[in-house]
Amino acid sequence: LKKLAKDAEVASCVKANAYGLGMIEICSILKKMKCKSFFVATVEEALLLRNKFKSINIYLLNGINNISDCKKLVKNRIIIVINNTSQFLILKEAYNYFNFKILSGIHLDTGMNRLGWSQEDIDKYYMFLKKYLDLKLVMTHMISSEKKSSLNRKQLDKFNKIKKKFSFNKNIKFSL
Question: Which of 1, 6, 114, 154 has its CA 20 to 30 A from that of 94?
C-alpha cells in the first residue's frame, strides 16, 4: 500500500480482535512494518492496545458515551472519533475537566447516513470544535468504495467541501 500511495499514512483497522486474527499479534507485525496508527471500535479495545503499545496512535471509531470512559481515554492518549453532537458535548466536558484540547477525530456523514456529523452540524459547532478539540483526523465512510459509482463522486465532492473548513490546522489528516 505504501508503494501505491507514497505520501499517505497507512493505518490499520484492528477492531473485533483484528477481525478474529488477534489484535495484539497483528498490531505487533504491522508496527514492525512501520504502521503507526490503528483503529478500534470499543473503549476496551483501545485501552488493551494502549497497555501493550505506548507509542502508537489509537483511534476509537465508535466514540464515547460517558465522561468516565472519556477521562480514561484522554489519560491514555486515545484519539476519540466523534460521530454526533452528544459525543462532542462529552469531549467538551472533558476539556473543562482537563483544561486542554482533547485528542480527537471527526467522522463526517457524506452520504452513508449511518454515523457522522452533517454539514449543518459542522457549521453549527465549528467554533467550538476549534476551541475544545485537538483534531488529528477528519474522515468519512464511502458507500461504495469497492466499485465505481456516481455516489463516490458525490461523497468525495461533499467531503472536499467540508474539509476546507479544517484548513486552520495543517496537522489534520483526511481519510475516506
Answer: 114
